[in-house]
Amino acid sequence: MDTQTAIEKKPGDRNHFLIGEFLNYLAVEKGLSQNTLDAYRRDLDHYTGFLRREKMPDWEGITRAHILKFLAAEGRRGLEVPSVARALVSVKLFHRFLAHEKYVKEDVTSVLESSRQWKKLPQFLTVQEMDAILKAPDPKTPAGIRDRALLECLYATGMRVSEVTGLSAGNVYLDNHFIKCRGKGNKERIVPLGSVAVDACRAYLARVRSKIKARTDHFFLGRNGSGLTRQYVWQMIKRYAMRAGIAKPIKPHTFRHSFATHLLERGADLRVVQELLGHSNIATTQIYTHVSGNRLKSIHAKFHPRG
């Protein structure tokens, strides 16, 4: 057995070395964030654990059937479709790295189909449901005023929860109706802010934030003057969803999905939505075009000569 390609069990084995080399390659050559690298490591830890249980002696012995069996096991473990698709990406990139660095003779995953075919349609709220949850915070309490402003910002901009919790007060331009948002890969983008969200933020600044001794430059603060956590926003949204009588699963990203969905339903250009969401690849944005089915039918019926 080739000691360089053995799938061993010890914590300090060659297996861990190879994964470490792979992650270093992604960090240096691809510039991926630590959160992304951690996700790859978790996927590969599950993958190598599966291979050990299958008693695979080395990397050269792995076939397409083993990888498909691993993906099926991940599904049985309770992972949702996007997570299984991400696991496939991790495995494919790792095997490509092994082949490129000559640890194995060939990339066995090159014959596997793209995970893009597995994407699950995003969960989003209707306009009526969104209106109900935005009205759920109590406008008579400081927390309610702040939460209303935060929810309005999420819906008005399509920002990720990490972007809104990390939003600096200096990057909120209410007079000009826009926010400067720092997204994935530390990339900045300008996102317009509608008048309703601007009014909610003005109320928050005047009636709540100005009365808090800020310990950070974050725009949205807790009672102690510190920034809000992603976990807090998650729980806050779940609480307001229940108060609004929304039964479907909802999380912060649901606001982002709803933002994109509602824009496209009303005729927004896909490239514009891509820019607003901060997607580097328009293929990522195209998943939202599922919402335009009825609209496309009506346009076809109206404008096609034989519609």
Mean pLDDT across all residues, rounded?
Answer: 84
SSE pattern, N- to C-terminal: HHHHHHHEEEHHHHHH
Strand content: under 5%
- Quick one: how many beta strands? 3
Helical fraction: 40-55%
Write the CATH fold name of the largest domain: hpI Integrase, Chain A
- The CATH architecture of the largest domain can be given as Orthogonal Bundle
* SS element count, helices: 13
Helix-and-strand structural type: mainly alpha
The main sheet comes to: 3 strands, antiparallel
CATH class identity of the largest domain = Mainly Alpha
Summarize it.
With 307 residues, the protein is mainly alpha-helical. It contains 13 helices and 3 strands; from the N terminus they run αααααααβββαααααα.
Can you put this structure into words, describing what you see?
It is a single chain. 53% of the residues lie in helices and 4% in strands. It has 307 residues and is mostly helical. The protein has two domains: 14-118, DNA polymerase, domain 1 (Orthogonal Bundle); 127-300, Orthogonal Bundle (hpI Integrase, Chain A). Strands 1-2-3 form a three-stranded antiparallel beta sheet, with no helix packed on it. The protein is globular, with a radius of gyration of 23 Å.
